[in-house]
Integration host factor subunit beta
Amino acid sequence: MIRSELVQKIADENPHLYQRDVERIVNTIFEEIIEAMANGDRVELRGFGAFSVKKRDARIGRNPRTGESVSVEEKYVPFFKTGKLLRDRLNGK
């Protein structure tokens, strides 16, 4: 599902809301999650999962095309851990 499909589904299920308002709500939620993660905070949506940021240390990597060693700088990457409810539903429990 892409963002526009999510907006459309929420708008269809809530006919009392305008689609532009639903789109603004969805965008605000995503922006707040992004902002919190950019600040290094953890975002937990109960039953769904938790978004966090993990640090990857600097290391020596390899260029797969040439085999040459290259330096890879430290970086921060997003990490998502599923919640128990989501895991259970995926596994048919």
